[in-house]
Design a protein that fits this description.
Ubiquitin-like (UB roll), about 550 residues, eight-stranded mixed sheet, Rossmann fold, alpha/beta, binds zinc ion, 26 strands, about 30% helix, 16 helices, single chain
């Protein structure tokens, strides 16, 4: 094939670098682009009130007509959660495995964006051509069925994206990574490898999912009372292990929670879950059985505030009240940042008399990402010319780049880049040549906001210091005894701080009586009140509240 000496590949990430989640990568060749994944992230606890982190779509808007296809590695939210936002700008077809296709369909229906695009199922090693790209997916092991890595062959060479992966020699669904096909696919040479860095800091190998099978069986069979297990709604392997344990112990299992029920129905229908002995039953029938026969599966393994697990821990769930003898199993490990909420729930459940089993005390969970030895295996299999660590905080990317260098990939061929960097690969070189917008955006109610939005910092101020609202009638301004209405939120405790609150009211009155004069305009009075009240309250309470003054006529 004749290659235009000026042609180049562009690799751009709009999320997933220097952060966990929001994974999204673009591969461009000449005029055309492919997108790999479009995920969301869970916002850190200090971003008060925001719901989801989403990728910045400014660059997508600019090249929307050049996007030829969307390739999805697997169905986790940090890889598909952003699709409804992406489909506002493109109707390029979406390619994924069968199970991922099921999850995407559910999501797009929920957002009403299913009609905007075509969804195509692709089998491992099936070849598809999109403009000058030739694409093949390959199956990998992960914590969700049908996870895939992707190879994109271009006239300049092959780009490989591993997606999230681990190497499991005894996966519970029996689907091993097909190393033979993979190595023959890679044998023509890999130009660039983009590989999962989530656990690049961890030495050794990630344990196999099948290690959890026995532990879960033992915990379920030894339970004298009810068992309530929380895991991710998409953790189908774990759900299968629970169904199997119920089958062996002659117990019944009910699914509590809407999202998990939807996923399980879909997985049963597509054959990714097997319930040959009809162990699954509805919650009403389950609760009529003797406690020893009852197993429940639910979400909330991350301590999410509205989840069933948190409701049970807070004693606010309408149906499930903790009994002596109940056993709770957290079959997951908290995503960094979620630990405080999770351990709080564990403590609350213990206090109510339940037994709680979690990863630190029993092997009820294994990780879904590769550790160092598996990452090395992937690098030695691909033998890439260029290496780009992806998916992870900056330190994970650095750790992964060091592994690649140890394995002989030259320093200058390893790229620890950031979201927005445009990495250009030509027949002779690779370098970051440009930058596109890739801001930290968050979905806040129904609005999209920048992390720098003053609303976010306002909320922090409000939550830390509270608010005082002062209402004055303008007719009162010149009076010697002006009438003032003062209310506050999050500042004065109505039972213990009554006096301080009254003193603040008196202070405002004195201030008005002393400063009132026909010469001073209302804005000046307002400004003065805000500053003086803030400083008065700060002296007596140590807090700097937001002060709002309204003068009405
Ligand atoms: Zn994943
Ligand atoms: Zn992921």
């Amino acid at each position: 094939m004749n290659i235009n000496p000026k042609s180049k590949i562009k690799i751009v990430h709009l999320g997933g670098l220097g952060e966990i989640g929001r994974n999204m990568m673009l591969v461009g060749y000449e005029e055309d682009y492919l997108i790999i994944d479009c995920g969301i992230s869970f916002p850190p606890a200090d971003l008060l009130g925001v719901d989801l982190g989403i990728p910045d779509m400014s660059f997508i808007k600019k090249i929307s007509h050049q996007i030829k296809g969307i390739l999805i590695t697997h169905g986790h939210e940090d890889h598909i959660g952003g699709l409804p936002f992406l489909l506002e700008h493109t109707n390029a077809p979406i390619f994924s495995s069968k199970f991922t296709h099921g999850l995407i369909s559910v999501k797009l229906k929920e957002f009403g964006s299913i009609a905007k695009t075509t969804l195509k199922i692709i089998e491992p090693f099936e070849k598809i051509s999109i403009s000058k790209f030739s694409i093949q997916f390959f199956n990998v092991c992960h914590s969700i069925p049908d996870a895939m890595g992707i190879t994109i062959d271009t006239p300049l060479g092959m780009i490989v994206h591993t997606g999230d992966f681990k190497i499991d020699h005894t996966p519970t669904d029996g689907k091993l990574i097909d190393f033979q096909s993979l190595s023959s696919l890679f044998s023509k040479g890999v130009l660039a490898l983009c590989s999962d860095s989530t656990y690049a800091e961890l030495k050794g190998f990630t344990p196999s999912e099948s290690q959890v099978t026995n532990t879960l069986y033992e915990e379920i069979s030894s339970a004298k009372g009810r068992v309530i297990i929380s895991t991710f709604a998409s953790q189908i392997y774990r759900i299968q292990q629970i169904i199997d344990a119920c089958k062996r112990t002659d117990k019944k299992v009910a699914v509590v929670g809407r999202k998990m029920s939807t996923n399980i129905k879909m997985a049963l229908k597509l054959g990714y879950l097997n319930d040959s002995k009809n162990c699954i039953t509805d919650i009403n029938s389950l609760l009529k059985l003797p406690d020893q026969k009852c197993v429940m599966i639910t979400t909330g393994s991350q301590g999410e505030p509205t989840s069933v697990m948190t409701q049970i821990a807070n004693e606010t769930h309408p149906r499930i009240i903790v009994k002596n003898g109940d056993k709770f199993i957290f079959s997951s490990s908290p995503i960094p940042g979620n630990e405080p909420q999770v351990v709080k729930n564990i403590d609350k459940l213990f206090k109510q008399g339940a037994d709680v089993i979690y990863n630190k005390i029993s092997k009820v969970h294994v990780r879904g990402h590769a550790s160092q030895e598996e990452l090395k295996l992937m690098i030695s299999l691909a033998k890439p010319q260029y290496f780009i660590p992806v998916h992870g905080e900056h330190r994970h990317l650095v750790a992964h780049s060091k592994i690649a260098q140890e394995m002989g990939i030259p320093n200058q061929n390893t790229f620890v880049i950031k979201n927005g960097d445009v990495l250009e690969i030509t027949p002779h070189s690779a370098e970051v040549t440009d930058e596109v917008p890739a801001e930290n955006l968050y979905f806040d109610g129904k609005a999209i906001r920048n992390v720098k939005s003053h609303l976010i910092s306002d909320r922090k101020e409000l939550s830390r210091h509270g608010i005082i609202y002062i209402s004055i009638n303008s007719l009162n301004i010149n009076s010697s005894n002006p009438s003032v209405t003062l209310s506050s939120y999050g500042l004065f405790d109505e039972f213990t701080d009554y006096e301080i609150s009254e003193n603040t009211g008196n202070f405002v009155q004195t201030l008005l009586a002393n400063s009132s004069s026909k010469d001073i305009d209302l804005d000046t009075i307002k400004r003065k009140l805000v500053t003086e009240v803030k400083s008065f309250v700060s002296k007596v309470t140590g807090k700097k509240p937001v002060v709002i003054v309204e003068i009405h006529h």
